[in-house]
Design a protein that fits this description.
The chain is an alpha/beta fold. 45% of the residues lie in helices and 20% in strands. The strands form five sheets. Strands 2-1-3-4-5 form a five-stranded parallel sheet, sandwiched between helices. A five-stranded antiparallel sheet has the order 7-6-10-9-8, with helices on both faces. A five-stranded mixed sheet has the order 12-14-15-17-16, with helices on one face. A hairpin with a 4-residue loop joins strand 14 and strand 15. About 3% of the residues have low confidence.
Length: 641
């Protein structure tokens, strides 16, 4: 009870002295007030643990003082013991009604006063503890109720999630028995409770499942495996331990249907393999074609002496056939790029008359050979359109080529441009007087790799890719293609595109083709591993006055560059020992040779190949086969720079 504060309120000094001595000896701290008014004033500054209050005092008596003390919030629970010389029952009852806890009769007995004070302080302390415990208990009860509510809500949510989960979720005991299963999977229901999941698995997966259970229960580690059911549905099963009090009490098996994921993965793999095949095919076909075209150009330019008429005709046939093969390769690659979403249009203002005339140039020669009259009808109201000039020219050339191909000698082909303002469309009509197309074959025209049956496929060459490209490129321009045809009378292909007007392009005056200036023995390093390509390219460059050194791979090229620094490097990409990418990077990393211009001359012509070469450090990129004049022009440009 040490350090407890007692407030004595009494107007008799003798009583105060007696109480002061006795209680101080008992270890209490004593405060004194001579009357009720003083007591009320002191209470505002002190906080006693117990009050000894005289009943009979001048001014306000003990009962009034008690009443006022109990009205104050901060001390309403402080125990008050009345002190009186009159043992009147009515007076005691009044005191108890006002909140007093006891009476002490005067004259005082020291031991009695101390005993009563200590007893009531102990009771007060116990009451405070009990109230604190009650408060804490109430808080814990409220908290527990909140936790139980959260658990119930969580359990309901989890139950709903489990029941509606697309996954198969089971609880499995150590012996493999199923004690819980959700109801979302059609081929397994709650009838399997107390049965073993292994009974529902195909036999080839039994060992994997048994090993997974062993790992969970014996090693306390999760495991997983894949399986396929009788309906050819693929699943990924994850087996995880359920632990309680540091012991594995059961296992949860979560089985996810991965059939679509497997199909998508297989599809992605097929697309990757297709892209790799096309890239390899492009490289393997372009490399020999490049040599054929270059050597035919050399011969046609009489680099090895003038050819007679028969020889020149033969070389022209070789050149024409090679370019036809190149066109077929480009069609295949373009179609692949469009299908893969890798081809993007380079839109801009295009002069309609110019793009039509440029397209007609491509079919001028073959039309003349078949004595087919070619007409162009322009619409004077249409000047420019927003197009990808190169790709739109590809559309027109494909359709014009077909028109010439399927029109007999002496026929007529018309390219007509017509504007339709009410629908904001421009129509490019390609009309011919050819053999026509049966009505039941028209819907198959634009399918890739499909040719019309019958006499058409037997009498005319082609892969069936051209019209598919036309259809897809037109759609990419926001347009569509329609066909009208009558057998034995002719066909009309209508390419309709939105009438989007761009700024009128400034048409440059025609430039006369000139043979590039012949340099004087400028040293060029040709890095190439194919003998036929080396022969063709070297022959071309030597014919134009270049001095050509050969390296057969990137490693050999680095050695020769350091021995004799060339003015320019022609770098193939796909080579043994060290490829072109690595060779370019090492050249750029060596400050002694990093300034040499490098032209990547490669059969890699897929989407992104140009960017890969330039990112590696090449100054320019040319895809095989390349026109001799184009090659020499780029060489001169790089050398001048």
């Amino acid at each position: 009870m040490n350090n407890k504060v007692i407030l004595i309120v009494d107007d008799e000094p003798h009583n105060i002295d007696v109480l002061f001595d006795d209680l101080t000896q008992a270890g209490f701290k004593i405060l004194v007030a001579e009357n009720g008014e003083t007591a009320l004033k002191r209470i505002s500054h002190i906080n006693p643990d117990i009050i000894l209050l005289d009943v009979k005092m001048p001014g306000i008596d003990g009962f009034e003082t008690c009443s006022r003390l109990k009205a104050q919030e901060k001390i309403k629970d402080v125990p008050i013991i009345f002190m009186t010389a009159v043992a009147d029952t009515a007076e005691k009852l009044k005191g108890f009604e006002l909140g007093a806890i006891d009476y002490i009769l005067k004259p005082f007995q020291a031991t009695e006063v101390v005993a009563r004070v200590e007893k009531h302080l102990m009771i007060s302390q116990l009451q405070k503890r009990l109230e604190a415990q009650n408060t804490q208990l109430q808080q814990e009860i409220i908290k527990r109720e909140q936790i139980e509510k959260s658990l119930r809500e969580s359990e309901m949510k989890n139950s709903l999630l489990l029941q509606h989960s697309p996954d198969l979720i089971m609880n499995v005991e150590r012996d493999g028995r199923i004690t819980y299963i959700n109801h979302s999977i059609a081929f397994i229901s709650e009838t399997v409770i107390d049965k073993k999941f292994i009974a529902f698995l195909p036999s080839e997966y039994h060992e994997q499942y048994s090993q997974a259970l062993h790992k969970v229960f014996e090693e306390k580690q999760a495991d997983s495996f894949e399986y396929k059911n009788s309906d050819d549905q693929y699943f990924f099963a994850r087996v995880v331990p359920i632990e309680w009090d540091n012991e594995i009490v059961s296992a949860m098996v979560i089985s996810t249907n991965i059939t679509e994921r497997r199909k998508n993965a297989e599809l992605e793999q097929a697309v990757r393999l297709k892209d790799e095949f096309l890239a390899n095919m492009s490289h393997e076909l372009r490399t020999p074609l490049s040599a054929v075209l270059m050597m035919s150009e050399i011969l046609m330019e009489n680099a090895y002496g003038k050819l007679n008429e028969k020889q020149l005709k033969t070389v022209e046939h070789i050149d024409t056939s090679a370019r036809h093969l190149l066109s077929l390769i480009n069609d295949i690659l373009d179609l692949s790029k469009i299908t893969a979403g890798q081809l993007e249009l380079q839109l801009g203002p295009v002069n309609v008359t110019a793009v039509c005339n440029a397209s007609l140039v491509f079919i001028k020669e073959i039309a003349a050979k078949k004595k087919i009259k070619v007409l162009f009808v322009a619409d004077n109201n249409i000047d420019t359109l927003v197009l990808d000039e190169r790709r739109f020219k590809q559309i027109l050339v494909n359709l014009l080529n077909n028109a010439i191909k399927f029109t007999p000698e002496g026929g007529r082909v018309i390219l007509e441009v017509e504007g339709e303002k009410c629908r904001n469309l421009v129509h490019f009509n390609i009309l011919d007087t050819g053999i026509g197309i049966p009505e039941n074959q028209i819907e198959r025209l634009f399918q890739p790799f499909v040719q019309i049956d019958g006499s058409l496929s037997r009498s005319h060459e082609g892969t069936g890719l051209g019209l598919s490209l036309v259809h897809k490129l037109t759609e990419m321009h926001g347009g569509n293609v329609n066909v009208k045809s009558t057998v034995c009378k002719g066909s009309q292909f209508i390419v309709s595109i939105p009438w989007l007007i761009g700024e009128t392009p400034v048409l440059a005056p025609p430039i006369e083709e000139k043979t590039p200036l012949i340099p004087i023995e400028i040293p060029i390093l040709l890095v190439e591993d194919q003998k036929i390509s080396i022969f063709a390219i070297q022959s071309c460059l030597v014919n134009y006055g270049y001095h050509v050194t050969i390296a057969h791979n990137g490693k050999e090229a680095l050695e020769k560059i350091k021995e004799n620094k060339p003015a320019l490097i022609l770098m193939d990409i796909q080579m043994p020992v060290m490829d072109g990418f690595e060779a370019i990077r090492q050249i750029r990393a060596d400050k002694n040779i990093s300034d040499i211009p490098i032209i990547a001359l490669t059969a890699l012509a897929m989407s992104g190949d140009r960017e890969r070469c330039l990112n590696a450090g090449a100054n320019e990129y040319l895809s095989k086969p390349v026109n001799i004049n184009k090659l020499v022009s780029v060489l001169n440009e790089q050398l001048q720079n």
